[in-house]
Amino acid sequence: MNAVADAVRAVISPLTRTRVFRRFLGPRVLPPLERFVSWATRGRVQVSALLVPSLVLHTIGAASGMPREAPLMYCPDGQGRAIVAGTNFAGARHPAWTANLLAHPDAEITVRGRRFAVRAEPVPDDERDAVWARIERQWPGYRNYERQSGRTVRLFRLQPVRRLD
């Protein structure tokens, strides 16, 4: 199955770097499609998970204080943590979920229908190149979103935590 997924990624990855994808398909089509598929499967399936490891990030809004959700690609870091990148389809502004994590680093993720508590930690500047290299082994060319956005993309490690309820 990995060989099939790798072959599909090799074909689709360049398409995600096109202007049409970054401006229209990515930000306007994928989020509603992800929400519909998640609703229809009760959170067990994500469209993006068909190609890359994906999760739903559950945060508290930085300004509103309201619960928020964001379906995201993630990259395992090899130490039990998930790495997420606030690329926002190469947009000029940071995605809202990154501000939410900065304001409220205690969050939750849903992966393959299971929900986990996590603590978000921004990736330090001296580790960014190594983290980007890991992400690009999974999704070639993904750092181009940062280059094309004109901003430094916020990178986070999501560390699973045990609740003391």
Structural notes for this entry:
β5 (106-111) and β6 (114-122) form a beta hairpin. This protein is globular. The mean pLDDT is 84. It has a single domain, classed as Pnp Oxidase, Chain A, CATH 2.30.110.10. The protein is of the alpha+beta class and 165 residues long. It has 5 helices and 7 strands; from the N terminus they run ααββββαββααβ. Helix content is 37%, strand content 25%.
Task: Compose a concise summary of this entry.
The protein is of the alpha+beta class and 165 residues long.
Write the layout of secondary structure elements.
Blueprint: H1 2-15, H2 19-40, E1 54-60, E2 67-73, E3 75-76, E4 82-85, H3 96-103, E5 106-111, E6 114-122, H4 128-138, H5 144-149, E7 155-160
Antiparallel strand pairs: 1-2, 1-5, 3-4, 4-7, 5-6, 6-7
Question: What percentage of the residues does DSSP assign to strands (E)?
Answer: 15-25%
Count of the domains: 1
Oligomer: single chain
- Class, according to the CATH hierarchy? Mainly Beta
Task: Give the termini distance in whole angstroms.
Answer: 39 Å
**Relevant CATH superfamily:** Electron Transport, Fmn-binding Protein, Chain A
Number of helices: 5
Strand line-up of the largest beta sheet: 2-1-5-6-7-4-3
Shape annotation: globular
Name the CATH architecture.
Answer: Roll
Compute the CA-based radius of gyration.
15 Å
Please tally the β strands and state the result.
7
Helical fraction equals: 25-40%
Helix and strand element order: HHEEEEHEEHHE
Mean pLDDT: 84
CATH topology: Pnp Oxidase, Chain A
* Main sheet attributes: strand count, strand direction, barrel closure: 7 strands, antiparallel
Residue windows where pLDDT falls under 50 for at least 5 positions: none
Structural class: alpha+beta
